[in-house]
Write a structure and sequence with these properties.
This protein has no helices and 24 strands. By secondary structure, the chain is mostly beta strands. The chain folds into 3 domains: about 80 residues, Sandwich (Immunoglobulin-like), CATH 2.60.40; about 70 residues, Immunoglobulin-like, CATH 2.60.40.10; about 90 residues, Sandwich (Immunoglobulin-like), CATH 2.60.40. The strands form 7 sheets. It has a 5-stranded mixed sheet with strand order 4-10-9-6-7, with no helix packed on it. A 5-stranded mixed sheet has the order 19-24-23-21-22, with no helix packed on it. The radius of gyration is 43 Å and the shape is rod-shaped.
Length: about 300
Amino acid sequence: TLQVPAHVYAEPKGYPVTLTITDEHGCENQITRVVNWRPAPALLIVSPNDTVSCAPATVLFNNLSNPIDNTYEVFWDFGDGNTGTAISPIHTYRQAGLFDVQLSVTSPIGCRIDTVFEALIEILPAPVADFSYAPTHPSNLEPLVHFTDRSIDAVHWDWYLDGQIFSQSQHPSLAFPDTGLHEIMLVITHPEFCLDTLIQVVDVEPQTLLHLPNAFTPNEDAVNELFLPAGILPGITDYRMRIYDRWGRLVFESSEPRQGWNGRYQNTGRPAPAGVYVVLVSYTGPRGEKAERKGLVTLLR
């Protein structure tokens, strides 16, 4: 009923206000107008979902200021040369650094407030996964490999062999169960829980090893009766063993690695005389490489 009243509105919006006047004769008149009460927030409040992270880091700036809605003009300066106009924007920092963030809000009726949040966001250099290993050419004869972590800014290590984790040590060792190409993946974790990954392919070579005995005694005493090369021969093909006497005559030949010479001509004829014989063994390795071994064997009777 005051001529110049004051009223505090609880929330910002448009309020219809009606003024009714009455003269001394009791006559009335009234008018209604909409009062838009949309002030600027008294205080700007921002709550990022993360304030310390690694590049590239995506940050949600949760704007808790009140009042504010889509009718307000909002401007963000993220401190890295980029800006935004959303109420609660999402921004990706791609470079390391310490960044001030500025926020200004202008209400629909022109009220304005701005704030600079100094050093609000710290972006650290991203971790870098790296490792070396030795020997650099492992094989079925030397399957144990030692891995050396050379990562930058790592506090946790997950090592995977062909997709299966095998260690969480910083510098693990692994005996490869089989030859061939194997994928080694290292996933490192930064103190701020950022991740980086490196994959290297390790070739475990299938190597062969062949030993030629230098003597045997086929005298039917059940001891050392057979001349048979021994060794590790995974995946070989085209195996051929030939044995010649001192005059160059072929006395035995075989294409079966498990078949040895019993001291007779072609294993069925008459006994060969005691003496020194020339042995030639050739085969194709598991990856197509040609191999040949030469030696001498003494037949004792």
